[in-house]
Every structure is written in structure tokens, then in C-alpha cells.
Amino acid sequence: PESLKARRNAVVATLQELQLEVSVIVTIMSNDETMKQMETMRDSKTLIQYLQTHFEFKLELMETLYKLAKYRYECGNYSIATSYLYFYMLVMPPTDKNYLNVMWGKLASEILVQNWDAALEDLNKLRDFIDSSNNFSSLQLLQQRTWLIHWSLFVFFNHPKGRDNIIDMFLYRPHYLNAIQTMCPHILRYLATAVVINRARRSSLKDLVKVIQQESYTYRDPITEFIEHLYVNFDFESARQKLHECQTVLFNDFFLIACLDEFIENARLMIFETFCRIHQCISIQMLAEKLNMNPDEAECWIVNLIRNARLDAKIDSKLGHVVMGTQPASPYQ
User: Fold this and answer.
1) Cβ neighbours of 75 (radius 10 Å)
2) CB-CB contact of 187 with 180 (8 Å)
3) What's any one GO cellular component for it (predicted)?
């Protein structure tokens, strides 16, 4: 349609106009030597002086660059937007009126081009900026942290270090745990999943259970209920039912679908480990029911656990039993 063509022409014209205005900055950005030199300068005043001396640089151009970066972002040119925003953050001091918006724009752009290393770096910078700022009211701080919690899910469920970082930020940073409990308890689903699939962080389970119990009156879903049934009520039948429901939840969740198989495997292991702490001799048939598996599958699964030295047990195939090894009981159990 003609209206769409006219709209496109207007957008292109505005883009060209803004691009022309900041041509000096574009020239600077295309010079690798200059950019390397700029990166070594930590002081904003020195950097601005250097640009004004060696190039026809004016500070007013930065406002136009900000507009151009936003326009590029709105047009879907995210990788170009990130380079403009990076330059802005390099030159301007953190006290600049646009600085917070630029940081948010940079994080969003890196997420949209799926550059997860840069996105994680931007996430940490933005979190430090929010936490150290004195310009926010208590309500604004809470709002900024809530936004950051939601945006961080893109990074945490795509970056290799995300599984550790989500636990550190959501569970062990009091301000962020407080924001989750106050504004968005549904985020507990993602925290709980991260703890379940991260075997190296089993020590966090105790703290997670405490938070889930505290928030159970405001938020529940099959994932948090699975943990509650298993570690608070020791109700294996309810935990089994919830594990079945968890599959549907994970399958339909944008962030969690990639963790589905891993979650089910680790959740079964958690049921099994908890069950083994209570019983010395377990029927494979009963165990299969608790793990939502058929007996042959369950036996094969247990054999693999024993083979990989993750379980001190023997299988009595004639009686169809798993006999647990003599494990010294912890005085705290």
C-alpha cells in the first residue's frame, strides 16, 4: 500500500538525516586505532578533550547519536545500535541523563543479536549501576530491579554460566530476592528449575526450600510444589504427580523448554536420592512408579547410576530389589 511506502520513505529520510549529522562520530568509530586509544582512557573529560582536539567533535553530537541509536533499534538494526551505544557509554560519564537508558538499550540489543557474553557483561554493569545509584526512590529501585530480573532470564537461560549466575543473583542477593518476593514471585519457577538442573549447586536447595515455603501462600506452580512435596512433606506420590505436571509446564515455557530432559532426569534423581535416605531395600517396581518409568527402564537407569559411581547400591534381579550400601548417616539427618 502507498501509505506503507510513504512511511518507509519517511523513516529512511530521518535515518539518513541523523546519520549525516553524526558523520564525524561514524568516522571515529571506523578507525580501529582511535577506538583502541579511546578504550585506554578511563576518564570521560580526558576522552572528550582528546576527541575535540584531534577531530571535529562536538559534545552536542552525542544527543544526536543517542537518537540515531534508538532509531536504529526501532528499525531492527540491533548490531549497529549496539556499536553506537557502546561509543556513547565510552565517551559520556555515568552521570549523563541518558546513561541509564543507553545501558538498557545496549543490554536489549545484545540479547536480540544473541551475543550472550556481551549481554552478561552488560547485565552485570547495569545491576551495579542500579545498586550503586542514589538517584532512585525506593519504588523506582524496586521497579528497575524487577525489570532487570525479567530481562536477565534471556541471558541466564542461554549463557553457559547462567545456571550459576541466576542462583547467585536471585537467591543470594537480598535486594533481588526481596524484589522477587514483593513484585514477581512467579520468577521462583526459574530459580527452582536452575537449582534442580545444577547438580553442583545442591547446597542451595535448603535456601530455596525456605523461600518456596515462605512464598507458597502467594505463588505455587508444579515446579515449586514438586520441591515442596519432596523436601518438606516427603510425600513421594504427590511429588511424582507434580513431576508429571512439570513436563507440561517446561514444554510450554519459552525459557525452560530447552531444559526439559535435564530437569526430568535430575528430578528423578532427587526423588530417588531422598527415597534412598529413608529406605534400605527398595522394590524396583515401586521405584519405577515413583519415577514415572516402566520397571525395565527404571532398572536400566539405576544400573547406569551405579556404573557411574553416583550410587552405592546393588541390584537383586531375582527379587527385583535395590539394596542400598551401608552409608554412614550424617548426624544432621
Assistant:
1) 14
2) yes
3) eukaryotic translation initiation factor 3 complex
Which residues are CB-neighbours of 319 under 8 A, at least 6 positions away?
A: none
User: Which CB contacts under 8 angstroms, 24+ apart, belong to 54-59?
Assistant: 55/24, 55/27, 55/28, 56/24, 57/24, 57/25, 57/28, 58/24
CA distance 215 to 190: 14
List the domain boundaries for the chain.
Answer: 1-113, 281-333
* Domain 1-113 in CATH 1.25.40: yes
Paired with 323 in beta bridges are: 281, 314
C-alpha cell at 186: 512467579
Res 85 pLDDT > 50: yes
Q: Which residues of 197-208 are buried (b: 16+ CB within 10 A; e: fewer)?
A: bbeebeebbeeb
Q: Which residues contact 285 (CB under 8 A, 6 or more apart)?
A: 295, 320
pLDDT tens per residue across span 120-146: 999 999 999 999 988 889 999 999 999
pTM (predicted TM-score): 0.84
What percent of the chain is predicted at pLDDT more than 90?
Answer: 53
70 pLDDT band (50/70/90 cuts)? very high
Q: Classify residue 232 by its DSSP letter.
A: I
The position carrying cell 530417588 is 272
Angle at 174 between CA 123 and CA 217, to 5 degrees: 110
Is residue 19 classed exposed, middle or buried when 0-12, 13-18 and 19+ CB atoms within 10 A define those classes? middle
CATH number of 281-333: 1.10.10.10
